[in-house]
Structure formats: structure tokens, C-alpha cells
Design the sequence.
DNA sequence: GGGCATTTGTCACACGAGTGAAATATTACC
DNA sequence: GGTAATATTTCACTCGTGTGACAAATGCCC
């Protein structure tokens, strides 16, 4: 989730030339591109490959673009995906209907592929407020994802980036033991060639940071296994 | 606001025929019409008669239409007025620039006077969201959107355009961390090919501007993440 | 239109927090 | 008690950020 995997984009477009153009530019921008010319197939694919982004032509074979958009939004498994509509010039009313239907952005043909990619990327950067499950809490600790802020008993706890990532992972999976290697995998952006012992050090720093206000230690050491977040007595 | 007095309209147009045509139709629709052919005179009149609506020709004597528009918007006493631009056919780029400058609607010549009146009336009915929700506040900072003015502890804080956009975004989303890229997306009109580090500099300028009165720093640096507006202690 | 002030983007440099590894001390388990 | 695992401390180095300076771009006024 935190790691920088290639974003997937599904292109729904029945004009071969445009499809190629879009595919080329998104590939070049590091996206993994899948495409189809058919609306019904698009609905299957969007569930299957779980793209981060759908580029959707307004007028396509099978189910119309606007209908595809609506159905993607209605299906809870796919409702979250970002959607950019491609439409012909000058159809202002279409634009309104498209936004109502749930498209996130609109690009009118003819368009600059570079701009399309740029807007798509900006769209993916934008956080969707509705999707932010942004409060984690356990044993007197609160973590606000949006504000990137941690409190213990109401007191703000300053954490370094690594400490924050560690704690966030523990809060997302409380009372579950993770080995040092597992922790390196989830809380270190570049987890190659890092000593397992290093985890110990950061666990300690996290303990100190959290305990600054004098509370009990919520991080449990499980000998020869790893660590977990656990409010039960040691 | 509640009273149904005759709406006042100022027509800025140097073509005698068009001026007459517009005057006639707006009068018939119950407007009180004033007109001028000169841009500089328009700026005086708009303060004097406080119209509800300005019909503004793109190309006029004196100061150009776009410049008149800009100045009307910049003057806090007149910034709220509705503006409809009259422009020659086919100038899409003009249209864009006009909207950026602050025109509310665009009508291309030749136009139907009936349609012009209808759109003007629709415009007046339409509530301008930016002018309604026009007070943002957080941690001793007040931002008046309509007046385009910022105060801290009551003291007026002069801000450059970029600083203003940054602060406005933060005030609209307080205590939420934004990456440099996200800030470029929302606070820079043309965000292509701008270095991420540039954000740092403008954040600093905003800090200096806000802190001029000696208050604490409300902008929080979240290392390796971005910035947020946050009144809590570190 | 020309000259001036402001705004803006970029850079170079300095500083300090954050990080990873190593060395030593401590604890837990048999 | 012996051994292995973990805790703690320390240190060198990296990397992100703050800062001031500068040049280009923009807008403004006459």
C-alpha cells in the first residue's frame, strides 16, 4: 500500500488510434495499461484487474460510457476507482451529466495526451475524503492519518517517519505479532540490505516516544518471534 | 437583498448600436441601465452606482475589457458584482482568460438580446458559492474570500497571490497534511514543470508573512510528507 | 509603450533530524 | 550458570528542510 507499485489504468475506447495514443503515453508514464473497446467487457475487467484509474470514452460499443461509469460507481467493489471521461468538443451538458454520474474529470477531444496523463496523475494524487478511514486507535493511542498526527491520552506525540510507519502498521493490526523481517517489509520504503537488528532500535525509539508521557509500554516483545502492539499486561 | 428593487446594470460598450440594443432589452426586463463606452469611466461608474451586473465588451476604448474586469474584481468595494463579457466569435482563449480574470459568463457576438438578458438574470439568481462561504478561520487567522483579505489576530496580513492560494487551501482543509505535489496541484494555476522544492520557498514566505506580527508558526512541517496547517504544539 | 515594483521559480549552502550499524549491557530461558 | 536473544548507547553518515540570494517573469503606473 505504501510501496510505489505501478498504477494500473483501464482504457475503454473503441477508436483504435486514440486507444493506441493513450496506451503509449500512459505506458511511458509508468502505468500498466489494459484496454477494451466494449462497455460490458469494461465492467468485467474493472473488477478483475482492479485498476487505479479508468479512461472512459463517452461513446462506445455495448453499454454507453455514461452507463459504464454509473455501474462502476454503483458496484461497491469498484466504486472507489478514479474515472476520467473522454468526450467530444462542445458538449457542455454532457459534461454536467458526466460529473453527476460520477466521473472525476473530463477531457474533451481532441486532447493532448500529455495533458491527459498529467490530469490523471493529479487526480490520483487527490485524496478522496470519503475513502479516508482516517482514525486509528488502540489502548489510549490515536492516530489521525490525514493529519499525520499521533496522540496518547490526548497528548501529541512527535514521531519520526519510521516510528510513524511502524506505529501505523501496529495500529492497523493490533495484538498481532510481526517478525523483524515482516516489519522491515511493511515499514521500510527500501527494505533491502537492512539489518534485522535495526528494527530493535526503532522499536525502542517508538517505545520512548510513546512512553514520554509516562504510560505503560504497549509494545510487547515476543522472544525469538518479534513484536506486537498489545495492551495486556506483559 | 430581500427587497425586489430594480436591478442596476452597467453596460460598457463602444458600439452605439449594440449599446442601444442591450439598453433596450434590459430596460424592458425591468433593469435600471447606465452605460459608458470608456473603460476608465466604467471603473468610476461601477463604484458610484454600485450595479448588480456589468455587461462588458471585450474590446473597448480606454482600458481594455479584460483589464476593467480584473480591476473590478480587485477592488473590494466592487469585487462582488456579476460580470458578463461580450466577445467576438471564436476566441476560445479569450474566453478562458476572461473566466480566469473573473467574468461570470460569456456571450459571443452576434448574440440574441433575449438570450443575453436571460443569462444575466440566471446569473443574478445563481448564488456565487465563493461569495457565500466567504469567511475561513483557524487558529487566529481569518480569511475573507470576497474581500480577498487575511487577518491574524485582527491585523491585516499582506500576501502575494501564491501565498494567498496556499493559505486558502490550508484553511479549507486544516490539520490535513499535503504533499508538495498536492500543493502544487491545488495552489498553482500552471503546475507543470515546477520544482517540488519551490513549494518550500513559498511556505517559508507564507510563514514569514503570517508571523510578522510575532505569533507562533501555524504551518507544520511533516518531514518526508509535506505541510499542514496545525495549531497543536509539535 | 517604457520603466519600476512586485512576484515568482530556482539554486547553493548550512543545519539538524533521522537513520543504520556496531559495540556493549542486560535480560530471559534452559 | 551458560547461552542466546534483546535492550541500550553511541556514532558516523545521509537526507530533508530552512534560508538567503538571484534572475526571470509578471503586473502596474505614468
Sequence:
Amino acid at each position: 500500500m505504501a510501496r510505489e507499485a505501478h498504477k494500473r489504468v483501464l482504457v475503454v475506447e473503441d477508436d483504435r488510434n486514440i486507444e493506441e495514443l493513450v496506451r503509449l503515453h500512459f505506458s511511458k508514464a509508468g502505468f500498466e495499461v489494459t484496454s477494451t473497446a466494449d462497455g460490458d467487457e469494461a465492467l468485467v475487467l474493472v473488477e478483475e484487474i482492479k485498476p487505479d484509474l479508468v479512461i472512459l470514452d463517452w461513446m462506445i460499443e455495448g453499454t454507453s460510457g455514461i452507463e459504464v461509469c454509473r455501474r462502476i460507481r454503483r458496484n461497491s467493489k469498484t466504486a472507489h476507482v478514479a474515472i476520467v471521461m473522454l468526450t467530444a468538443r462542445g458538449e457542455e451538458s454532457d459534461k454536467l451529466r458526466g460529473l453527476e454520474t460520477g466521473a472525476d474529470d473530463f477531457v474533451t477531444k481532441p486532447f493532448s495526451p500529455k495533458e491527459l496523463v498529467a490530469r490523471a496523475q493529479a487526480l490520483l494524487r487527490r485524496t478522496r475524503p470519503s475513502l479516508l478511514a482516517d482514525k486509528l486507535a488502540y489502548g489510549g493511542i490515536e492516530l489521525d492519518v490525514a493529519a499525520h498526527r499521533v496522540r496518547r491520552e490526548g497528548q501529541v506525540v512527535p514521531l519520526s517517519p519510521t516510528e510513524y510507519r511502524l506505529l501505523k502498521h501496529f495500529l492497523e493490526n493490533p495484538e498481532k505479532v510481526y517478525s523483524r523481517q515482516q516489519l522491515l517489509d511493511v515499514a521500510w520504503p527500501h527494505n533491502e540490505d537492512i539489518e534485522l537488528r535495526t528494527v530493535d532500535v526503532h522499536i525502542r525509539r517508538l517505545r520512548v516516544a510513546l512512553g514520554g508521557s509516562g504510560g505503560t509500554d504497549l509494545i510487547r516483545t515476543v522472544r525469538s518471534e518479534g513484536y506486537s502492539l498489545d495492551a495486556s499486561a506483559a
Remarks:
- The first strand of chain A starts at residue 8 and ends at 12.
- Confidence is low (pLDDT under 50) at residues 92-96 of chain A.
